[in-house]
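Let us practice reading a record.
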Amino acid sequence: MRLADYLDKGASLGPDRPCLTADGATWTYGEVREHTVAIAGALQRTGIAAGDRVAVLSTNDPLALTCVFGISRAGAVWCPVNPRNEAEENRQLFDLFGCRFLFFQKKFGELVARIRTDLPQLEWLVCLDGEFDGALDFGTWLSEHRSEPDEGWHPADGLCLLAGTGGTTGKPYEQSWVMCSGAGYVLVGAVGGADDCA
C-alpha cells in the first residue's frame, strides 16, 4: 500500500471525521484526501514522474503533511529534510537524494537560498506559506498546475521514502525505505556516506 492508500482508507471509513488539527482548525479525512488529489495532479503536471524525488522542508504542519500524501499519490518519493541540520549538511542530502522539487516553509527560505545555487537538479521551489524570491507560492503553483492525477501507477512494492541521517560521525547518507506488500514499510539500505557505511 502507498502512504496515500492509508489516508484513502480513513476517508472511506469516515470522510467527515477529523484528520488533521492545528491552531484551532481541523481538516476532515475527506478534505485532506481531496487536497492530496489536487497536489498529486499538480506535481504530475509540473513534470514530476513516478520515482522522482520531492523534498519537504518544514516543521510539523498540516499543509506539509498533506503534501507528503500528495507526493505518495503522484508516485513520487518523499524526501523529508530536517530544518535543524546545518546548511551544508542539507545541501549534501539534497545532492545525494537528487531532488527535483522542494516544498518549504518561508522561515527556511534563507537556508534554501544559500544552498540553491549548488543544486542545479532542483527545478521547482514552492513556498507553503507565502511568497519568497525565486519560488512560487503554494496557492499560485496549485492553481496554475491543477489537473486530475494519473493514479494508474500502483506498485505493490517500491521506493517511497529517502531519509537522511544526522551525519554526526561523518558525511550524511540516505536511508531507502520501500513499500512491501503485506509487510508495510521496510528499511532496505543506506548509501552515500562511504565513511559511515563501510
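A brief commentary: DSSP finds seven helices and ten strands in the chain.
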